[in-house]
Write a structure and sequence with these properties.
Elements: H1 3-11, E1 18-25, H2 33-42, E2 46-53, H3 57-63, H4 73-80, E3 85-93, H5 95-103, H6 108-114, E4 138-140, H7 144-154, H8 167-191, H9 196-206
Antiparallel strand pairs: 1-3, 1-4, 2-3
Helix pairs in contact: 3-4, 7-8, 8-9
Organism: Stichopus japonicus
Main location: other
Subcellular location: Cell projection, Cilium
């Protein structure tokens, strides 16, 4: 590398990948949404989009589809559709792990013991507002694939960068495609339609878990 090339490289600012994640304030903590937003901003996040919505049971079921069949699924759906929530798209370098760390463990009792400074553990910060594994005040995407899916679900007009290749692509197929495709193929075998390709295509369109189906009567706030 020549001296000129070195000087040019030194003049260029470092490129930082700004990650995005979905943050959610759950029904039991909606009255503390402003406090939570203040903490988010003080922690260096940028709030790209924000809205207040009230999920129907069907929408809550679609959002948490990966937990379908688990013992807690019905109560989770009932809780998440019990009142309005605030959803936000947060941006920051390594936003996903930073937001998860700020939220603290999913289990509120554990959060009190291991993460006393996590979000909502005193008047500012999840365990003070959290009650158990489900009523734990806030939600954060657990990875790039889920962040993209959840942002698209809550903000259907959001532009999300293409899914990366390699392991991230495998994760995407595993978590966002294979589950739905397997369910569709199972139904296909049960129905045995004359035109299986067309039937499967129609089924996938009707049962697309990423299809934006949120209808809310609340004012959409964006910042």
């Amino acid at each position: 590398m020549t001296e000129e090339e070195i000087n040019v490289n030194m003049m260029q600012p470092p490129q930082i990948y700004v990650e995005r994640t979905l943050a959610m304030v759950k029904p039991d903590a909606i009255h503390k949404a402003e406090n939570i937003e203040e903490i988010i901003l003080r922690s260096g996040f940028t709030i790209l989009s924000k809205r207040r919505i009230h999920l129907t049971p069907e929408q809550a079921s679609d959002f948490y589809a990966e937990h379908y069949g688990k013992m807690f699924f019905p109560s989770l759906v009932a809780y998440m559709s019990s009142g309005p929530i605030i959803v936000m798209v947060l941006a920051k370098e390594n936003a996903i792990p930073y937001w998860r760390e700020l939220c603290g463990p999913t289990n509120s009792m554990k959060a009190r013991e291991t993460h006393p400074d996590s979000l909502l553990c005193h008047v500012q910060y999840q365990a003070l507002y959290g009650v158990d594994d489900q009523r734990n005040a806030v939600h954060g995407s657990d990875g790039i694939v889920n962040a993209e899916r959840e942002i698209r679900f809550m903000f259907n007009d959001s532009i999300v960068e293409p899914i990366p290749v390699k392991q991230a692509a495998k994760d995407y197929l595993e978590r966002a495609v294979n589950i739905t495709l397997l369910a569709g193929l199972t139904e296909l075998c049960k129905k045995k339609p004359e035109d299986p390709v067309k039937w499967l295509a129609d089924w996938l369109i009707a049962n697309n878990p990423n299809k934006p189906t949120i209808n809310d009567n609340y004012k959409v706030e964006e910042s």
